[in-house]
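User: Okay, second chain of the day. Same drill as before: sequence in, structure tokens out.
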Amino acid sequence: MKRHVVDTLLLLMSLLFILQVGCTRQIQVPIRKALWITRWDYLTESQVRTCIGNAAQAGFDTVLFQVRGNGTVFYRSSLEPWCEEFDHQDPGFDPLAVACQEANRLGISIHAWINAVPGWRGDQPPPETSPPQHWHARPDWFLHDADGQRQPLQPNYYVALNPCLPEVRLHVANICSELIENYSIDGIHLDYIRFLETGLETDYPRDSRSLQLFSQQSGFADPDSAPEAWEKWRRDQVTELVREIRKAVRQADRNALLTAAVYRTPQIAYDRVRQDWPRWLRLGLIDAVFPMQYDRETDRFERRVAECVREASGYPVLMGLGTYLHEDPQTTRRQAQLAIRLGCQGISHFAYSSFWPAGEAGAASDRLRQLRRQHLLSSD
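Assistant: Same drill. Structure tokens below.
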């Protein structure tokens, strides 16, 4: 065989090897055991310090600390009013600043967790506040139907801002910039970064502005003439929201992580709530996903975890465990072990109140929390 042919073959084999290594290389993030701390887990400065202290003592390396629920916030913001839990007033302390101080002191990472698209929650409108909440100040930002009616308020769940509007996407990105710039956090953790489950029976959004944007960007006259293009366009608008947030986070701090709590499997996320999270990973728009695999059934949990890891294609997956559902702490342990064995880089527990009281709790639930803490510590 001639020398140049041999050289060519060797070069091709080398390139093939590099491609194979690149395809199987695992991208890493510095998170192995995380804990969601919800906005209902604290009301006082002392409770914030207790939450962070308990998480650190239990061996969590990362806390996902919720600071935005539904167009109101738990930190000193120039963009949105204080939360209803604090009667829309400054409580005299900054929950996120206190949480950052404690996390830094105790050597654990803290990510600011925000609900991205929720605009309000409950069947009653927010009170008139100064500054006003979006429901009053920016009614056009919410989803509207074909009759021009805003998505109605509903008990115990959210109404959504319209992710198809550039000004909404910019606002959410600005919230992330504000957090990164003003607090010593390690990242932003996105939740509800999708269309919401309630409202899917209505073909939102059908306001004139969204329809005009669809027509301009897709080339179709209206959604009814191109239903597949309409579905794709709405899914792409959620991706554009993630892209806008990624840009804002990188500009504020290139080292800050951007992660997302996502629907339990890629196909359900894609079909049901227009959330294409495997694509976000491939495009580098987020650093890791936390599929919310809240399930009592371990066999089903295993199948869905395997699907998530397969579709993530080597990008970081931190599996979200529905610890609050598990009456037997052994279920939590088995699921955590399965997630790691199947290729997840780590796990995250939902939520803080599964392990420690957060509000009123009966004796039985206190006992279950104690057992969960014992299993948590013994699994390290």
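Residues 5-25, 360-364 have pLDDT under 50 and may be disordered.

User: Thanks, on to the next one.
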